[in-house]
Design goal:
Blueprint: H1 19-24, H2 36-44, E1 57-60, E2 63-66, E3 71-72, H3 74-78, H4 80-83, E4 91-96, E5 102-106, H5 107-123, E6 132-136, H6 141-153, E7 156-159, H7 166-176, E8 180-183, E9 187-189, E10 192-194, H8 196-204, E11 213-216, E12 234-235, E13 239-245, E14 253-258, H9 260-273, E15 281-284, H10 291-303, E16 307-311, H11 322-330, E17 334-337, H12 339-348, H13 351-354, E18 363-366, H14 373-383, E19 390-392, E20 404-405, E21 420-421, E22 427-430, E23 440-446, E24 456-457, H15 461-469, E25 475-483, E26 489-494, E27 499-501, E28 504-506, H16 508-516, E29 521-531, E30 535-544, H17 552-566, E31 574-577, H18 591-598, H19 614-623
Parallel strand pairs: 4-16, 6-7, 6-8, 7-13, 8-11, 15-16, 15-17, 17-18, 18-19, 30-31
Antiparallel strand pairs: 1-2, 3-12, 4-5, 9-10, 13-14, 14-24, 20-21, 22-23, 23-25, 25-26, 27-28, 29-30
The chain binds 5'-O-[(S)-ethoxy(hydroxy)phosphoryl]adenosine.
5'-O-[(S)-ethoxy(hydroxy)phosphoryl]adenosine is lined by residues 245, 290-292, 366-370, 392-397, 418, 477-479, 491, 494, 586.
């Protein structure tokens, strides 16, 4: 990596939150002079500690210890603390199943369920503090109960997304050496049963895991009142969970998060970024199998006493307006989803959200990929009705919580720009040699340790040091970014995906955004193809909105549009129209596989793809 990444996309539109939003916001000002560690100590003290901490941070690069003498319990902070307040009878969870069935739990009821399962795990199965428990379940309330039951007894939970195959589950069971698996009798997806429990049986069938017990949580009939169950006091640095992230290459990494620091940031960031109030109905659409589901469906909102919406289904079943139906029915006020979903909604058309009353919404969020400015504007106008601030939140499984975004009651929003580092977080855009860029493009780095940072990769410290701490002396996020004169960050995509055209390093996001800006385009992914003259030529894969047809004339127009919008250097050599792009199960575009296609290589590992069939079609279209 010799040269730096350039900036091409100029996005000048900006939006301001309304005066009333600003006035009522949870955070209305930032004290820039506040000492960073003092700031975090103050946030940590908002949690309930069984024993207070003395040291805020001990830092032996790259190993951090936050609030180390303190003792607390994460589940206690999500449930018990509310039982002595008006929130005891408040709804903690509103769950809607794929068929429209609804179950709700007050804080008291959720506490009771968690205590029952915690008692069962301890007394019947002998699960102890530090033991690993894997959860492989659909999006049902029992998954939240299972996670919190583990936290309550100090078992380290490892949630594996319910869409992964038996062999992916087996790898994760082996790596974590889990002795207990929590699963469910069955889930459903698009009206069809998901054979969740069968997958677990298959994963353990070769007897090469450590699994001793498989608990089918939804059919387990636990009776009795266990609400006096004592939550295990955990040291602040005791692991809370492992979460495997496959990334775009290689063996999955078991990202380890600990208790006190993680929960401090989860609670603080949910309060500040989502502006959560007691009256809100908060819906994060992420699956609990991803970090977003951990931090912003469970730990963040529950530690703040929120009412959380949890939905089992998909956005297009039974119809493509299902999300808007859920928002209308449950009067959702805060909605947090991913760009891939937003681009699908754009593709399906404006009439679908228009059919529903979305007036309960007051704040929107986005996470997981760069949101192209056109998709941002669509979200703002068609869903938020020009009324709701959008928080574009940049973070990673490794960071545990949101790092860069706008605070909805303070900052101007700029489509495509995530925003600024949160209070307490320090970031920079660096040149390959580690010098900071004051304005322009480069590599994103977090400059100082933060409470919810990963503490390592389960069982593999060497890999931890190599992946995150070898490039720079500070944390290397693996993303390209730009910073502008106001300190706003725009995320350009993964560094592995960066294009190199005639000596210019160009982030994928900018070229893709200019394609999405073209009428009729819903999604785009660009990759570099080896080229004798330019080093790489840009090949674009484009999905059109319903009702548009891809042809040579359109291809030409689109190429000249990109050239006009961001410059001739970024002009695609070819555009391939495809009904879908390869995506991971969490919805991220897998450019690496498209690169295999344009390089004429056999297509690489597709096991992390949610839609593996699309690759054959894409290959055919590329060769035709
Ligand atoms: C990308 C998800 C641009 C980025 C919380 C990051 C984003 C990776 C954004 C982490 C955003 C996430 N804008 N890119 N707002 N949010 N990313 O571990 O490349 O599933 O490094 O965590 O997603 O993905 P992960």
């Amino acid at each position: 990596m010799s040269q730096n990444i350039e900036t091409l996309l100029i996005e000048n539109r900006q939006f301001e939150p309304s005066d009333i939003f600003k006035k009522l916001a949870n955070v209305t000002s930032i004290d820039l002079d506040k000492d960073r560690l003092e700031f975090w100590a103050e946030q940590a003290k908002k949690l309930h500690w069984f024993k207070p901490f003395e040291t805020v941070l001990e830092w032996n690069r790259p190993y951090a210890k936050w609030f180390q003498e303190g003792q607390l319990n994460a589940a206690y902070n999500c449930l018990d603390v509310h039982l002595v307040t008006h929130r005891k009878d408040k709804k903690a969870l509103i769950w809607e199943g794929e068929f429209g069935d609804v179950r709700t739990f007050t804080y008291e009821e959720l506490h009771q369920e968690v205590c029952r399962l915690a008692t069962y795990l301890q007394n019947e199965l002998g699960v102890k503090k530090g033991d690993r428990v894997t959860l492989y379940m659909p999006m049902i309330p029992e998954l939240v109960i299972g996670v919190l039951a583990c936290a309550r007894i100090g078992a380290i939970h490892s949630v594996v997304f319910g869409g992964f195959s038996a062999s992916s589950l087996r790898d994760r069971l082996q790596d974590s050496k889990s002795e207990v698996v929590l699963t469910a009798s069955a889930g459903t997806r698009r009206g069809k049963p998901l054979p969740i429990n069968d997958v677990v049986e298959e994963a353990v069938s070769q007897h090469d895991t450590h699994v001793k017990h498989i608990v089918v949580v939804d059919t387990l009939k636990l009776e009795g009142n266990f609400s006096s169950h004592q939550a295990e006091p955990m040291m602040s640095e005791d692991p809370l969970f492992i979460l495997y992230t496959s990334g775009t290459t290689g063996k999955p990494k078991g990202i380890v998060h600990t208790t006190g620091g993680y929960l401090t940031h989860a609670k603080y960031s949910t309060h500040a970024v989502f502006d959560l109030k007691d009256s809100d109905v908060y819906w994060c659409t992420a699956d609990v199998g991803w970090i977003t589901g951990h931090t912003y469906l469970i730990y963040g909102p529950l530690s703040n006493g929120a009412t959380c919406m949890m939905f089992e289904g998909t956005p297009d079943y039974p119809e493509q307006d299902r999300f808007w139906d859920v928002i209308e029915k449950h009067k959702v006020s805060i909605f947090y989803t991913a760009p891939t979903a937003i681009r699908s909604f754009m593709k399906w058309g404006d009439e679908l959200p228009a059919r529903h009353d979305l007036s309960s919404l007051r704040l929107l969020g986005s996470v997981g990929e760069p949101i192209n400015p056109e998709a941002w504007i669509w979200y703002y106008e068609q869903i938020g009705k020009n009324r709701c601030p959008i928080v574009d939140t940049w973070w990673q499984t490794e960071t545990g919580g949101i790092m860069i975004t706008t605070l909805p009651g303070i900052h101007l929003m700029r489509p495509g720009h995530a925003g600024l580092p949160l209070p307490g977080i320090t970031a920079s855009v660096l040149m390959p040699d580690g010098t900071p860029v004051t304005q322009g493009g480069g590599l994103l780095s977090l400059m100082e340790p933060w409470p919810s940072m990963l503490r390592g990769i389960w069982g593999d410290n060497k890999r931890y040091e190599e992946v995150y701490w070898k490039t720079f002396s500070t944390y290397f996020a693996g993303d390209g970014a730009t910073i502008d004169a106001d300190g706003y960050y725009m995320i350009l995509g993964r560094v592995d995906d960066v294009l190199n055209v005639a000596g210019h390093r160009i982030g994928t996001m900018e070229v893709e955004s200019s394609l999405v800006d073209f009428q009729g385009v819903s999604e785009a992914a660009v990759v570099g193809m080896p080229d004798d003259i330019k080093g790489q030529a840009i090949i674009a894969f484009v999905t059109l909105k319903d009702g548009y047809l891809g042809n040579v004339a359109l291809e030409k127009e689109m190429i000249s549009h990109v050239s006009k919008m961001i410059g001739a250097i970024a002009k695609p050599k070819r555009i391939i129209f495809t009904p879908d792009l390869p995506k991971t199960r969490s919805g991220k575009i897998m450019r690496r596989l498209l690169k295999d296609v344009v390089e004429g290589k056999p297509i690489g590992d597709v096991t992390t793809l949610g839609n593996p069939d699309v690759m054959t079609l894409i290959q055919e279209r590329f060769l035709s």
